[in-house]
């Protein structure tokens, strides 16, 4: 696939060859009334043969990456082990699975950054330690997930180099001790089931933008992920993001929007379900706990002042998580 928009015929083939029943049910009257839906044509960046101009010329801030170096074997094992975990009896999953009441029809397992116990920040929020399933129940599970976590972080750092160059910074600007040498990085294994009903506010995942620097997403071939490129449009226009074999989806987050002073923007997205089991593995990258998120020097001038206040990474993440949990508590009061 070239360093340009993926050929329309490829995406059309993916969508048209879906079973008619699935597509017809996916686009029910209530969903069409809620949004205008079509396939999304995203830019594809080849990490084996790319330059920062391909990032700077993006017309949207969700894109595919290919030749990322995560082998098919590593990817297949991660999905296989994810399915193994979610297939466990509820009582075994609850030994390690934190469950909160909300309106999203999904269950998830979060694997965060871990630092050694002798590290002065080992017990900081967002750094772990992780709970792990019993190896007698899921042999090889931890090793598989730690390998995928390591590989996803490597890919994100490669993308960060392109982002830095696109912003007229040194390629290693983000991979500095102050930013990504001890990042907050979270691997999430997600299992969706059920049917969405937007008219009742029921989704696989509700509309939101991601908090952090970027998200690297691997999905199975079940259609569901949608993006809204213009959140202020009325009505909002939602577009499916199909899974492309060998490609990962990259979504730039709110922190990247702040750093770039709005040059790169976070994108609203959601998941719509159609009574099919769906699995995805997003990897969320944020900088170090103490990193200050503020407008980059190359993204501001006398005529383009910083649009967002500076804030410490951990403070910002804590605020965002508390906002989400406050919404959960509000829902519980009225449920």
UniProtKB/TrEMBL annotation:
Identify the domain of life. Eukaryota
Q: Which SUPFAM superfamilies match?
A: Clavaminate synthase-like (SSF51197)
Species assigned in the record:
Brassica napus
Protein name stated in the entry: Fe2OG dioxygenase domain-containing protein
Q: List the PANTHER family.
A: FE2OG DIOXYGENASE DOMAIN-CONTAINING PROTEIN, OXIDOREDUCTASE, 2OG-FE II OXYGENASE FAMILY PROTEIN
Q: Which UniProt keywords apply?
A: Iron, Metal-binding, Oxidoreductase
What family does the database annotate? Belongs to the iron/ascorbate-dependent oxidoreductase family.
* All residue ranges annotated as the Fe2OG dioxygenase domain in the record: 183-287
- Family matches, as Pfam families: 2OG-FeII_Oxy (PF03171), DIOX_N (PF14226)
Does the keyword section mention Iron? yes
């Amino acid at each position: 696939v070239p360093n340009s928009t993926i050929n329309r015929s490829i995406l059309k083939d993916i969508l048209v060859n879906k079973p008619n029943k699935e597509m017809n049910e996916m686009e029910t009257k209530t969903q069409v009334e809620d949004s205008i839906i079509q396939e999304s044509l995203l830019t594809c960046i080849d990490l084996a043969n790319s330059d920062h101009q391909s990032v700077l010329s993006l017309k949207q801030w969700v894109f595919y990456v290919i030749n990322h170096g995560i082998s098919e074997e590593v990817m297949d094992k991660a999905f296989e082990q994810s399915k193994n975990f979610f297939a466990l009896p509820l009582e075994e999953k609850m030994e390690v699975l934190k469950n909160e009441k909300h309106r999203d029809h999904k269950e998830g397992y979060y694997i965060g950054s871990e630092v050694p116990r002798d590290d002065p920040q080992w017990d900081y929020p967002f750094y772990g330690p992780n709970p792990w399933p019993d190896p007698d129940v899921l042999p090889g599970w931890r090793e598989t997930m730690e390998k995928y976590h390591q590989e996803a972080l490597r890919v994100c750092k490669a993308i960060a180099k392109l982002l830095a160059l696109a912003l007229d910074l040194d390629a290693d600007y983000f991979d500095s001790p102050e930013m990504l040498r001890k990042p907050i990085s979270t691997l999430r294994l997600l299992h969706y089931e059920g049917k969405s009903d937007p008219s009742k506010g029921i989704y696989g995942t509700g509309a939101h933008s991601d908090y952090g620097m970027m998200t690297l997403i691997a999905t199975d071939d079940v259609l569901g992920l949608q993006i809204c490129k213009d959140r202020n449009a009325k009505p909002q226009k939602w577009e499916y993001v199909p899974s492309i074999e060998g490609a990962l989806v990259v979504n730039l987050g709110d922190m990247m929007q702040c750093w770039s002073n709005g040059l790169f923007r976070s994108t609203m997205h959601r998941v719509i379900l159609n009574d099919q089991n769906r699995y995805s593995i997003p990897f969320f990258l944020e900088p170090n706990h103490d990193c200050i998120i503020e407008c980059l020097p190359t993204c501001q001038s006398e005529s383009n002042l910083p649009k967002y206040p500076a804030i410490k990474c951990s403070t910002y993440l804590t605020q965002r998580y508390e906002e989400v949990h406050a919404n959960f508590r509000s829902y519980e009061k009225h449920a």
